[in-house]
Amino acid sequence: MTYLAKSPWIIHYDASSCNGCDIEVLAALTPVYDVERFGIVNTGNPKHADVFLVTGSVNEQNREILKNTYDQMADPKVVVAIGICAASGGIFRECYNVMGGIDKVIPVDVFVPGCAARPEAIIDGVVKALGILEAKRQAMNDRPAATTKPAGDSV
Question: Which residues pair with 41 in a beta bridge?
Answer without folding.
Answer: 9
